[in-house]
Amino acid sequence: MIKLKGLRKKFKDQYVLNGIDLDIEQGEIVVIIGPSGTGKSTLLRCVNFLEQPTEGEITVGDLTVDFCKASKKDILELRRRTAFVFQNYALFANKSALDNIAERLIVVDRWPKQKAHDKAREILKRIGMEEKAESYPAALSGGQQQRVGIGRAMATGAEVILFDEPTSSLDPEWVDEVLALMKQLARERQTMLVVTHEMSFARDVADRVIFIDGGRIVEQGPPSEFFSNPQDPRTRDFLKKIL
Ligand code: ADP
Ligand code: MG
């Protein structure tokens, strides 16, 4: 359902991603871990064309795009099929929770305003924030802001949601409510690609854990095997440091 082939990305003369091949099934929950500066964010950003990849090919559903030959229309369509949840929430400060969720539906997906607002209300209900519809981000806790960030991604009906360290900016007290919402999505079999340092989430929720180092996939497997019996020395080293 989403497939990356030979994804490479360089900044200046330096390759940050060195040939990533990845196949994700519909409904699969994939967690990506790895040292800092190793290309995890760049990988997610390439999928969404927040960065222009240097080489490779992507398939999402029935759409296959060569990164080098992508047209404006391809890029828009890929963005429509994927949604991004940012570490720092990236909400519009001057828009209410409701408008933050409705905005993309109106601007990117060209929904009429009323339909977008109805959808946004339905989503606010699903994320338990109905009563905060008219609140601006500054009046929300970090956890509530990130739930709106996730709600915005949910509203789009995207085929895959990309999470880039969604709990890393949160005060510890808000982490659980955000993870709980992500677990709810996982139970609904929303296809998810999640970069996180939350190893308990990886253990409990992921179908597959992928370890990236130096812009390559070093090792991957179901969490039960991955954590109990890592094969590569780099994986073992990393796990020793963070567990
Ligand atoms: P991670 O998310 O795994 O911590 P990133 O994908 O953010 O790593 O970054 C990987 C490498 O690419 C880092 O060395 C970073 O400095 C570099 N990098 C990321 N974005 C840019 C950019 N826009 N311009 C130049 N270098 C970048
Ligand atoms: Mg990152």
Automatic annotation (TrEMBL):
Keyword Protein biosynthesis: no
Gene Ontology molecular-function annotations: ABC-type amino acid transporter activity; ATP binding; ATP hydrolysis activity; hydrolase activity, hydrolyzing O-glycosyl compounds
Record's GO cellular component terms: plasma membrane
Top-rank taxon: Bacteria
Domain ABC transporter intervals: 2-239
Membrane topology: Peripheral membrane protein
Cellular compartments annotated: Cell inner membrane
One annotated GO biological process: carbohydrate metabolic process
Pfam short name (any one): ABC_tran
Alphabetized UniProt keyword annotations: ATP-binding, Cell inner membrane, Cell membrane, Membrane, Nucleotide-binding, Transport
Principal location class: membrane
Family from the record: Belongs to the ABC transporter superfamily.
Protein name, as recorded: Amino acid ABC transporter ATP-binding protein
Organism for this UniProt entry: Marinobacter nanhaiticus D15-8W
